[in-house]
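Structure request: CdiI immunity protein domain-containing protein, Acetobacter oryzifermentans.
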Amino acid sequence: MFPRLTNLGASSFGEDPELFGDTLFEVIEDAPRGHFLPFKQQAVNELRTLLAYSDVDLDRVSWAVLGMNPMADIEEPPNWGNFPSLRAFWSAVLHAFENDPEVRAGKEIDPDM
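Returned structure:
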């Protein structure tokens, strides 16, 4: 039901998310990069649908698609950061995708321009 979020769980938020940033917030900010506009738009739609779920259902889906716990207070890497709830985490991911320049423009942007 959430193929784009599952894809993020297998990459950016997978078992080694620190490969994508020094902090969890950097991983979230970088999550839209490297994806084409249709993926980003579909991710926004999936995130909006997910955030409409109850907290119980949100938790169930999150554990199925994520390869990490965004609420865990981990020691390594230092200053990694965490979220108070899964809803706060997914809201931050939605914000990152909604504010991606291509999503905002509604078209792909040539990085060389």
